[in-house]
Specification:
Layout lengths: L15 H24 L18 E3 H12 L3 H9 L4 H4 L21 H5 L4 E3 L2 E3 L13 H4 L6 E2 H19 L4 E3 L19
Parallel strand pairs: 2-4
Antiparallel strand pairs: 1-5, 2-3
Iron/sulfur cluster binds next to loops.
């Protein structure tokens, strides 16, 4: 079901913070691409590997709004098929993302949240270096960080901080939740997906 639909941008009446989110996302894509190029020889990431997607993921409200807008411009039949997945036992159990296709691809790849864009390669988090165990498989873990030159990995903690600021600005402009599950992005336009007591 993967669609080639490009991510929709903010409309003229969108809260200004939505445009800021798209700008942050574009910068993250740029940095992530550079980091992946720098680490390419050690990465097993590729289409069909869904190790990052076998979870129930959450995202900031601004990301859910962007994702929801993206879903809203897909063909009606595609939207219906995606919503049907809400009843998938694995999705209900939190064992797979609702947007994960059967072939391991992402059904909303162009509009996937920022966290999804950073998974796999080595990144620096508040707790230190982190990477998918499927990558750097031939290198002893203790030696992995030393392989990466300065600037060759994303500083995820800084991305998180920036995203949190944009998300708070969006929330002050448009309301909505602090965070929520990606399944909320499947609520039709006109329905508030966070009116279920889960809003943060
Ligand atoms: S949105 Fe796409 S990339 Fe992110 S967890 Fe879901 S299927 Fe994976």
């Amino acid at each position: 079901m993967t669609t080639d639909a490009p991510s929709v941008g903010p409309g003229p009446d969108a809260p200004p913070a939505l445009a800021e989110y798209f700008a942050v996302r574009a910068r993250v894509d740029e940095f992530a691409a550079n980091a992946e190029a720098a680490q390419a020889q050690w990465l097993a990431c590729g289409r069909g590997c869904d190790a990052c997607c076998r979870v129930s993921r959450t995202a900031f409200g601004v990301e859910l709004a962007a994702l929801r807008a993206h879903v809203g411009q897909l063909p009606v039949s595609t939207q219906a098929a995606l919503r049907a997945r809400l009843a998938d036992p694995e999705v209900v159990a939190g064992a797979r993302c609702v947007f994960l296709d059967g072939d391991g691809a992402c059904a909303v790849y162009a509009a996937r949240p920022i966290l999804c864009r950073t998974h796999g390669p080595l990144v620096f988090t508040e707790d230190g270096p982190s990477w998918c165990a499927l990558n750097f498989a031939t290198v002893p873990p203790a030696e992995v960080p030393a392989l990466i030159a300065p600037g060759g990995a994303l500083a995820l903690a800084r991305v998180d901080t920036l995203l949190a600021v944009v998300a708070a600005r969006y929330r002050s402009q448009a309301g909505g939740p602090v965070r929520g599950p990606l399944t909320w992005a499947l609520q039709p336009e006109g329905e508030a997906p966070w009116d279920d007591g889960q809003a943060g």
